[in-house]
């Protein structure tokens, strides 16, 4: 796998609760990549240890999105790295120019499954005080066509473990890597 990937980095995108952070760790390990980063964790560090909830409260979503772009810009220069992004990273056109530095994998998870995973979760500010189903449906409607611009779409099944999802990503990667250019010597 490493031969095929060369030193390409992988960016995981998808809705909140899709499993990007969980699977990203495993994927980096399986690929033998020593580096794994989660954009949200880096933003929390940048904000001197504030949680994402606190950041949304103190500086607001717009500043969070600005920091998200800054963090992504830096990460896009890294090779052989798995990067789990926040679900809203796809919203800014500028972010796509950074994501395109690597292979973009969309973890596609149904709203029903997202609800199961996020019902008890209090770490996502955009879901606070909201009708969970309605909010997730609205966000997915707004974002689906953006997620769809990924290089690879992995549709996660309800019973699939993070390990199984990781294995499916690894199996699917070769099909989306561009074939090597034909060497000039071929035409001589
Ligand atoms: N394949 C899976 N099967 C069951 N639970 C999962 C799976 N992937 C993630 N989870 C759980 O779902 C929740 C959200 O996962 P997380 O990795 O934080 O998603 P994201 O980073 O995409 O928001 C966590 O509680 C995590 O343990
Ligand atoms: O979808 C979003 O807009 C967000 C997703 C979150 O990350 P996860 O996708 O890892 O939950 C986090 O960046 C923030 O709460 C906003
Ligand atoms: Mg995450």
Walkthrough of the structure:
With 188 residues, the protein is of the alpha/beta class. The protein has helices spanning 2-5, 20-31, 39-46, 52-58, 61-75, 93-99, 111-118, 132-147, 162-176; strands spanning 10-13, 35-38, 81-84, 103-108, 152-155. It has a five-stranded parallel beta sheet with strand order 2-3-1-4-5. The model has no long low-confidence stretch (mean pLDDT 95). Adenosine-5'-diphosphate is lined by residues 14, 16-22, 84, 117, 160-162, 165. Mg(2+) binds at residue 21.
Assembly classification: single chain
**What percent of the residues sit in helical stretches (DSSP H or I)?**
40-55%
Lateral strand order in the biggest sheet: 2-3-1-4-5
Q: SSE order, as H and E?
A: HEHEHHHEHEHHEH
List the helices and strands and how they pair.
Elements: H1 2-5, E1 10-13, H2 20-31, E2 35-38, H3 39-46, H4 52-58, H5 61-75, E3 81-84, H6 93-99, E4 103-108, H7 111-118, H8 132-147, E5 152-155, H9 162-176
Parallel strand pairs: 1-3, 1-4, 2-3, 4-5
Residues 14, 16-22, 84, 117, 160-162, 165 line the site of adenosine-5'-diphosphate.
List the keywords.
188 residues, 5-stranded parallel sheet, binds adenosine-5'-diphosphate, binds shikimate-3-phosphate, binds magnesium ion
In short:
By secondary structure, the protein is an alpha/beta fold.
């Amino acid at each position: 796998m490493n031969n095929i990937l060369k030193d390409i980095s992988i960016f995981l995108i998808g809705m909140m609760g899709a499993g990007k952070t969980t699977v990203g760790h495993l994927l980096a390990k399986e690929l033998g990549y020593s580096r794994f980063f989660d954009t949200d964790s880096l933003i929390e560090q940048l904000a001197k240890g504030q949680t994402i909830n606190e950041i949304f409260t103190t500086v607001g979503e717009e500043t969070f999105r600005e920091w998200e772009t800054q963090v992504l810009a830096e990460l896009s220069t890294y090779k052989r790295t798995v990067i789990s992004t926040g679900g809203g990273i796809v919203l800014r056109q500028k972010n796509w120019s950074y994501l395109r530095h690597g292979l973009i994998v969309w973890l596609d998870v149904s709203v029903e499954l997202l609800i199961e995973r996020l019902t008890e979760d209090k770490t996502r500010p955009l879901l606070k005080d909201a009708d969970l189903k309605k909010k997730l449906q609205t966000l997915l409607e707004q974002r689906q066509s953006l997620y769809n611009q990924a290089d690879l779409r992995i549709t996660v099944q309800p019973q699939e473990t993070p390990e199984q999802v990781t294995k499916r990503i690894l199996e699917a990667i070769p099909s989306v890597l561009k074939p090597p250019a034909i060497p000039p010597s071929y035409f001589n």
